[in-house]
Design brief:
The complex is a heterodimer of chains A (185) and B (220). With 185 residues, chain A is mostly helical. Chain A contains eight helices and no strands. Chain A is globular and about 55 Å long. Chain B is 46% helix and 2% strand. A two-stranded antiparallel ribbon of chain B has the order 1-2. Classes of the chains: A mainly alpha (185), B mainly alpha (220).
């Protein structure tokens, strides 16, 4: 039977985790559906474009395998983002080794996107993307988590392994840089 | 340059944009933004950036990822073979495990190989036995002595080899040396009992496992 609430979208992450640990795989599916796209956005902010599906999948598999180590003092999403970031760093290190010491440009411009859905003009979208791409890697991570996920500073600090105050500064500096870039003609 | 002095409200703009504020706080932020050019610009940049970053983020196949994740985290916890074969994919799992979807290896994953190995054992053991049929230590064998020893008679410890034990010995405890001619009557009795058990095991295998590996074309 399982917990009926676990099958509803209003179940909390903690309730879904508990349901999954009791054997309800639909709870795992619900967790993936809830957080997968946010992880993809975060992965993009880290410069990942290829193999994002695999990255998101690996993040969930690793998280579910070590759920016993998950402490409820942070949100599941924060924990997932932390795992995702570590996987990305592992990938970058592996890629760097493959390239025999050639450093990656972590803030490289992202190209080859699909067409937008018409909600934002392409020119404006490109300018915003350019502005975000000009941020430092840490600014970009903080800004993305704050803007696209609405994540509070204390959780962002856990993900990027910094302090809450530093994240607040990074966010406001990023916002200022973006506004300046967008206002330049 | 004009700056906003109400940093508390400015800090809450992302939560406001995501609709995560209570009604009272949301109204306070809305009123502040209406009178603050800095926060109005921040909010506009924030919402535009959110829209662009979300629209340009890679789209992942959530259903496929969910299926792969549940398969990778559930399969190894299935306790019994019957469950693994017959249960639906949504069968409950007991506990997260340390390895994803470990594949079954060895005999369990290749029952035909186990059957083939059993046949090979029977052939390799019985061939020299047939060749030396009727002779033990160069003398004719009394068929009555081949009957199981009293009390089962297959205890390897109880078997006393007629000659010093060779280096190689199989799990039956019966020494394997240059030939069966060196075996004692008790050794042969033990060996025959073991063979009967092997043959009985093969006879109980499902018919599908006894199918030839290579299908021969039908003769018309």
């Amino acid at each position: 039977m399982g917990d009926p609430k676990a099958r509803t979208s209003d179940a909390t992450d903690a309730e879904l985790i508990a349901s999954w640990q009791r054997g309800d795989q639909r709870a795992a599916t619900a967790l993936v559906e809830r957080h997968a796209q946010a992880l993809a956005r975060f992965a993009a902010s880290l410069g990942e474009r290829d193999g994002v599906d695999e990255l998101v999948q690996d993040t969930f598999v690793r998280a579910f395998h070590s759920l016993d180590a998950f402490r409820a003092d942070s949100s599941l999403r924060t924990w997932l983002f932390t795992i995702c970031k570590r996987l990305v760093l592992d990938r970058k290190r592996a890629e760097r080794r493959r390239r025999d010491g050639v450093e990656l440009d972590e803030a490289h411009a992202v190209v080859g996107f699909d067409a937008l859905d018409g909600m934002v003009a392409e020119e404006t979208a490109q300018r915003v993307q350019d502005a975000v791409d000009r941020l430092t890697p840490l600014q970009k991570q903080v800004f993305t988590l704050r803007v696209t996920e609405g994540m509070p500073y204390n959780e962002i600090a856990q993900v990027v392994e910094s302090t809450e105050g530093a994240c607040r500064v990074h966010y406001h500096n990023a916002m200022k840089a973006i506004k300046e870039y967008l206002s330049d003609d | 340059m004009i700056e906003c002095l109400d940093l508390a409200k400015r800090d809450r703009l992302p939560e406001y944009a995501h609709g995560r504020l209570g009604a009272a706080e949301a109204e306070a932020v809305r009123a502040h933004v209406a009178g603050c050019a800095v926060c109005a610009a921040d909010l506009a940049a924030l919402e535009t950036s959110r829209l662009v970053l979300s629209a340009r983020a890679p789209r992942v196949d959530v259903a496929a990822i969910a299926a792969a994740v549940t398969a990778a985290t559930a399969a190894p916890t299935r306790p019994a073979l019957s469950v693994a074969r017959g249960a639906a994919s949504a069968a409950p799992i007991a506990k997260p495990v340390a390895k994803p979807a470990a594949r079954r290896t060895g005999w369990a994953s290749r029952p035909w190989l186990a059957a083939a190995a059993s046949i090979l054992i029977v052939v390799s053991v019985s061939l020299p036995l047939v060749q030396s049929a009727g002779r033990v230590n160069g003398a004719p064998v009394d068929s009555a002595s081949l009957a199981p020893a009293p009390g089962g008679g297959t205890d390897p410890v109880a078997v006393e080899p007629a000659a010093p034990a060779p280096a190689a010995a199989v799990a039956t405890g019966v020494p394997v040396g240059d030939g069966f001619a060196e075996l004692s009557t008790d050794d042969l009795s033990t060996l025959l009992a073991e063979l009967e058990q092997v043959e009985a095991t093969i006879a109980t295998e499902p018919a599908s496992m006894r199918k030839p590996i290579v299908d021969t074309p039908e003769v018309r």
